[in-house]
Design a protein that fits this description.
It is a single chain. A six-stranded parallel β-sheet has the order 2-1-3-4-5-6, with helices on both faces. It contains ten helices and six strands; from the N terminus they run βαβαβαβαβαβααααα. Helix 6 crosses helix 10 and helix 7 crosses helix 10. The protein is of the alpha/beta class. It has two domains: 125 residues, Rossmann fold, CATH 3.40.50.2300; 77 residues, Winged helix-like DNA-binding domain superfamily/Winged helix DNA-binding domain (Arc Repressor Mutant, subunit A), CATH 1.10.10. Strand 3, helix 3 and strand 4 form a beta-alpha-beta unit. The radius of gyration is 18 Å and the shape is globular.
Length: 219
C-alpha cells in the first residue's frame, strides 16, 4: 500500500485528487494539508506516509521550502510536485531540494497514477509534457548522428509503444490506439524502463532518439 500526504491549498483541487485516488486499491491518502506548515505539523506528530504529493505555490510554507525541510527531517520520504509551473528553473529547484517527481496539473489520471507508483518503487519521474519540452530544446533533438545500435532487445510491440510514448501519448491513449488495456501498456512501459536502464520518461525519450527508434521531424 502506498500512503500519500496530499498538500494543496485549493479545496476543489484537493477534493478532486482525493476522489480520484480513492478508487485505487494500492493507494491511500493518509491526510491532506493546506500548506507546507500544516504538512510538517502532521509529519512531526508521527504521520507515516510513502509519498508527499505537493503543490509549489502555497501560503505559510511553499512546496520548495517544504521539500527542503523534508529532505533533512525525513530523507526516505518520496516528494512529488504537482503544479502549474512548467518553467525548467522550478524543475531544477525541485530536484535540488530532494524531489523525485515533477508533474503538471494538466497530466491525465493515468499519468498521475503511473507517476505515484513509479516513484514509490524508488524511481524518478518527470511528466511527459515537460520531458518532451526539455528534450525539444536540446540541439541533439534535431541534429542526429548515426543512431547507436540498440542492445536492449526490444520487441516489436515495445518499440511501437516507445514511439507512442515519445510522441506524447498517455497510457490510456496508447491502449485505445493499440486496442489493448491500460494495465498492459503500463506493464510494457515498466519493461521499457527496465530494459533500457532508464529511470523516467525524459531518459526513455532520450534513449529512443539516440538509438534511432524515434526521430523528430523538422518543423
Amino acid at each position: 500500500m502506498i500512503h500519500i500526504l496530499l498538500v494543496e491549498d485549493h479545496h476543489l483541487v484537493r477534493d478532486g485528487i482525493s476522489t480520484l485516488l480513492a478508487n485505487e486499491p494500492d493507494l491511500r491518502i493518509q491526510a491532506v494539508a493546506a500548506d507546507g506548515r500544516e504538512a510538517l505539523d502532521l509529519l512531526d506528530k508521527g504521520l507515516e506516509v510513502t509519498v508527499v504529493l505537493t503543490d509549489i505555490n502555497m501560503p505559510e510554507l511553499d512546496g520548495i521550502d517544504l521539500a527542503s525541510q523534508l529532505q533533512t527531517k525525513f530523507p526516505l520520504m518520496k516528494i512529488v510536485f504537482l503544479t502549474m509551473l512548467d518553467h525548467e528553473d522550478y524543475l531544477q529547484r525541485a530536484f535540488k531540494v530532494g524531489a523525485v517527481g515533477y508533474l503538471l496539473k494538466t497530466v491525465t489520471r493515468d499519468e498521475l497514477l503511473f507517476a505515484i507508483r513509479h516513484v514509490a518503487e524508488g524511481n524518478t519521474y518527470i511528466c511527459s509534457e515537460i520531458s518532451y519540452k526539455l528534450l525539444k530544446k536540446s540541439s541533439s533533438f534535431y541534429i542526429m548522428n548515426e543512431p547507436e545500435p540498440t542492445d536492449a532487445n526490444l520487441s516489436v510491440r515495445e518499440k511501437e509503444i516507445l514511439e507512442l510514448v515519445v510522441s506524447g501519448m498517455t497510457n490510456h491513449q496508447i491502449a485505445d490506439k493499440l486496442f489493448t488495456s491500460r494495465r498492459t501498456v503500463e506493464g510494457h512501459r515498466q519493461k521499457l524502463l527496465a530494459k533500457t536502464r532508464t529511470k523516467n520518461t525524459a531518459e526513455l525519450i532520450r534513449y529512443a532518439i539516440q538509438h534511432g527508434i524515434f526521430k523528430e521531424k523538422a518543423s
